[in-house]
Automatic annotation (TrEMBL):
Keywords carried by this UniProt record: Membrane, Transmembrane, Transmembrane helix
Source organism: Alteromonas profundi
The protein's name in its UniProt record: Diguanylate cyclase
Domain of life: Bacteria
Keyword Transmembrane: yes
Membrane-crossing segments per the record: 6-27, 43-62, 68-91, 103-123, 151-169
């Protein structure tokens, strides 16, 4: 690995994103999200996980090209819109404290940082999206010619599933159970 942007992505940006996601879940748990804003907010969190997870998996497994950059940009903006919806809904139902707000800023900016580093690493693929007569955009999905280390992939994907998706799914289930309890009363 001679490209410092790859090292920064792999060993700083992605771990920081994972830690911020875990910290956000702890904030939700502390604010008793299951009985305040409920399953709806948790469903929004699962949607945001998907919006950053899809580009993450694409970048980890496939050669980054114009198609993957376009998908990453599209999902970044979808994530931002969903984040606005999430916070608008959350503040109407529960207290969103300063620590959680600060964590949210990380969860919004880390995908942007990752996207900027990916674009910097694949500049011609990025610019081909905006040059109709120039370099043709590459739109196929091809596994990486030089894959990332298998242990790294397994650890990142396992942590994302077990410590990000799992807790947010558990949060959703708790919210559904709490809603069920209110319906029976």
């Amino acid at each position: 690995m001679t490209d410092p942007t790859l090292t920064i992505l792999m060993y700083f940006v992605i771990p920081l994103w994972l830690v911020a996601g875990i910290a956000d879940w702890f904030c939700h748990r502390r604010s008793n999200i299951s009985t305040t804003s409920g399953a709806k907010e948790s469903l929004i969190h699962l949607l945001m996980f998907t919006e950053v997870g899809v580009p993450l998996v694409l970048v980890l497994l496939f050669e980054v090209n114009s198609f993957i950059i376009f998908i990453s940009i599209l999902f970044f903006f979808l994530h931002e819109l969903t984040a606005l919806w999430d916070v608008s809904y959350a503040v109407s139902k529960r207290k969103v404290g300063p620590i959680e707000q600060h964590i949210h800023s990380f969860l919004e900016m880390i995908p942007l940082l990752a996207l900027v580093l990916i674009v910097a690493r694949h500049w011609t693929q990025f610019t081909s999206l905006f040059q109709p007569g120039g370099f043709p955009p590459e739109v196929s999905l091809q596994f990486k010619q030089t894959p990332l280390p298998p242990v790294y992939l397994i650890v990142v994907l396992a942590v994302a599933l077990m410590l990000e998706f799992g807790p947010y799914l558990e949060e959703y289930i708790r919210g559904k159970r709490a809603e069920g309890g209110h319906a029976r009363r």
